[in-house]
């Protein structure tokens, strides 16, 4: 039985009721907020496991809510919004959101995104909250301490940039990372040239991870936005 506590910050009553009914049916605990101020208060008071956040709240932009929460917590924030432009998605993700669902959405998709957020937390943190020295996803293994990567039991030879990219994605598994975020983390800056370089390095990394088209896909491309490492069951 799922025991995660989920904060639903949504001012549209029918959508809020749909989400709450879905959570109740699947044994999630929940809190609700109808505006940004209430969402921030509930998040700080009850420390939910996940936040489902609408961007168009009546008193403030959802992006501001994300920024406020990020000053004290790294809990997963999934944006659920009618805004479908890439610029809106990028702004929310760059502010610290973990994922983005566009309305109208299916209940199955919402539940899948929640499960992804839960897995990212459980994988990236050990029982004591510290990061594990070895990351495993399907047949991919990264030994952070030794700086080695193995695929199907054989060591994978990566360039320093490819290794940094892979580690960054693995430490944020299930989370969409924007081009800007990745380039700032890897190169310490972000420009059109850096994004172009990122695409080249990501292409070579994916060739090594997915040499055969029949191989498992580890990295998902979000066109115009960024990349995400998928959890392999």
TrEMBL record:
DNA-binding region: 132-231
Domain Response regulatory: 5-118
SUPFAM superfamilies per the UniProt record, alphabetical: CheY-like (SSF52172)
Entries under InterPro entries matching the protein: CheY-like_superfamily, OmpR/PhoB-type_DNA-bd, Sig_transdc_resp-reg_receiver, WalR-like, WH-like_DNA-bd_sf
Keyword Hydrolase carried by entry: no
Entry function: May play the central regulatory role in sporulation. It may be an element of the effector pathway responsible for the activation of sporulation genes in response to nutritional stress. Spo0A may act in concert with spo0H (a sigma factor) to control the expression of some genes that are critical to the sporulation process.
Name by which UniProt lists this protein: Stage 0 sporulation protein A homolog
Source species: Hominiventricola aquisgranensis
């Amino acid at each position: 039985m799922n025991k995660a506590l989920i904060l639903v910050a949504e001012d549209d009553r029918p959508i809020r009721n749909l989400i709450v009914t879905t959570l109740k049916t699947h044994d999630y605990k929940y809190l609700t907020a109808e505006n940004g101020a209430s969402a921030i208060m509930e998040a700080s008071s009850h420390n939910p496991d996940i936040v489902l956040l609408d961007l168009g709240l009546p008193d403030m932009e959802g992006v501001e809510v994300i920024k406020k929460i990020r000053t004290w917590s790294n809990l997963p924030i999934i944006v659920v919004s009618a805004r479908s432009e890439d610029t809106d998605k990028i702004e929310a993700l760059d502010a610290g959101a973990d994922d983005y669902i566009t309305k109208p959405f299916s209940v199955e998709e919402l539940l899948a995104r929640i499960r992804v957020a839960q897995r990212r937390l459980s994988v990236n943190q050990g029982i004591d909250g510290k990061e594990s020295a070895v990351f495993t996803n399907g047949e991919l293994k990264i030994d952070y301490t030794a700086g080695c990567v193995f695929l199907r039991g054989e060591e994978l030879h990566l360039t320093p940039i490819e290794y940094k990219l892979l580690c960054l994605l693995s430490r944020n598994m299930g989370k969409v990372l924007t081009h800007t975020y990745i380039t700032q983390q890897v190169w310490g800056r972000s420009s059109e040239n850096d994004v172009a370089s990122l695409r080249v390095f990501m292409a070579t990394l994916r060739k090594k991870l997915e040499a055969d088209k029949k191989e498992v896909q580890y990295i998902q491309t979000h066109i115009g936005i960024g990349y995400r490492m998928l959890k392999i069951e």
